Amino acid sequence: MTDIRPLADPDTVRAALDDAARQRHDALTAEVAADPSRLGRTFPAAARQTGRGPLPGLDGVLLEDAVRVGLVRAAAQGLDADTLLAELRELYRYGDSDEKRAVLHALAGAPAELDGSDLLHDALRTNDTRLVAAAMGPHSDRLDDDAWRQGVLKCLFTGVPVAAVTGLATRADRELAEMVQRYRREREAAGRDVPPDVQVVLDACSASPRHSDRKGS
Amino acid sequence: MRIFDPHIHMTSRTTDDYEAMHAAGVRALVEPAFWLGQPRTNVGSFTDYFDALVGWERFRAAQFGIAHHCTIALNPKEANDPRCAEVLDVLPRYLAKDGVVAVGEVGFDSMTAAEEKAFVRQLELAVEFELPAMVHTPHRDKEQGTRRTLELVADSGLTPGMVVVDHLNEVTVDQVDEAGCWMGFSIYPDTKMDEHRMVAILRRRVELGRGLGRVLVNSAADWGRSDPLKTARTGAAMLEAGFTDDDVDRVLWRNPIEFFGQSGRLLLDDDATSDAITDATATFEGNSVLRGSRD
Ligand SMILES: [Zn+2]
User: Which family does it belong to (chain B) (predicted)?
Assistant: First the structure.
């Protein structure tokens, strides 16, 4: 009932697996499609039953993430948005860091009516750069401006490439520019180098349609 | 020298330790769930701790080029607090995860009935989840504790080769060997066990024709007086005593991979595991235990 956009084309994912792993992948997908409540059991074991590592042909996408998002997608066909969100919260709550990241990638492909921003807030409280990066993907349009700006700043702080931030070109504003300039001054005062992404964000701020916006306006 | 420390509590260690360990050759480790010094009083404290073992600590280790695995269990000391008994009910969630390579540390601390009940239940979980078990032997009355431990392991139905009995010494090693379990040795900076006594134990095993199989050497470093480089120092002591580079590699790298590889959950790339597979297939007569997934 709910459509989740795949992280990678399902054929690309299947092509990346050897025969035995592809069979297990198809069986897991069928199991979850037939009974979405099996998601909690299949999701943690999915990587070791199929594969892990960079997905050939897709820069920066991990096979295990694509497989797990595929399982969420199969389960989502049989779940309304609220039930799916509840399921995703469970997977995230009890997930290891790989599973948590896959949940964030699934949220990235979720329809507009589904709001998992509480999970993004949790991810942004960690210092795990893989979680921070995933949280600033497409679903970050659910974050309010304050939380989103703090997320961008955290990317600069922790070395997450801001290329991972969705909406930088349209959402960057004067407030963010001021925060980043203060960050740059602090780095310079300490005699430390300034990461190149600082200028990327500042350029996005001045080019953005929201550049003249003030906080709260 | 490449090193896999099969027992170290990194949660209690600093990034300086990670750096020094990497410089000494440590590329992989197992962090068993254990006691934190201050007793916990509710289940939530455990789940947050377990979450850190499969989350933050794994990330932290990766920053220093070290593959982090863990074991999950209710430890014997806290098994004595009835407020913590429900931890047993949340274990299955964690035992299903990648990188969780054994049930542990289980076993005895003060040999109480509550400890035995939790121990037996967790050996059942190891059978159910097809995981090895890491068994802690008490620091007091070790010989008697080890004897009772081996009886319970025999009753559990878990294959002896799936069990490591840890913190052994000269007095307890032979009964564990005869039971067919793996022998774990924790090398401390004090009198419990040091690298030179470790080398003497290894030398005796070789002289008796028992070889270097089924032996794990760890630092067991934690928040107490301990040294995360004791594995490397044991390797150096082995070389000084005339063991070869290959002997050291066997004990400090291939043996842990062979043992924990039985879980099917190691997070190492194929190159790292391939030579250990050769040993493992030799040991288990062609039945490769490291490859593929376990359904
Ligand atoms: Zn320990």
Answer: Belongs to the metallo-dependent hydrolases superfamily.
Which among B93, B99, B292 has CB closest to A94? B93
Q: Which of B55, B93, B295 sits opposite A97 (nearest CB)?
A: B55
Sort out which chain B residues have CB atoms less than 8 A from A96's CB and list them: 54-55, 58, 97-99
Q: Under CATH, to which class is B3-263 assigned? A: alpha beta
pTM, full prediction: 0.89
Residues 6+ apart with CB under 8 A from A156: A162, A180, A183, A195, A197, A198, A201
Q: Which residues of A touch B58 (CB under 8 A)?
A: 96-97
Asked if B258 contacts B278 with a C-beta cutoff of 8 angstroms, the reply is: no
Which residues on A lie below 8 Å from B93 (Cβ)?
94
Q: What is the pLDDT along chain A (217 residues), one digit of tens a residue?
A: 999 999 999 999 999 999 999 999 999 999 999 999 999 999 999 999 999 999 998 888 999 999 999 999 999 999 999 999 999 999 999 999 999 999 999 999 999 999 999 999 999 999 999 999 999 999 999 999 999 999 999 999 999 999 999 999 999 999 999 999 999 999 999 999 999 999 999 999 999 888 776 554 4
Q: What's the gap in Å between B72 CA and the centre of ligand 1?
A: 12
ipTM for the complex shown: 0.85
In a domain, A123, yes or no: no
Residue A132 lies in a domain: no
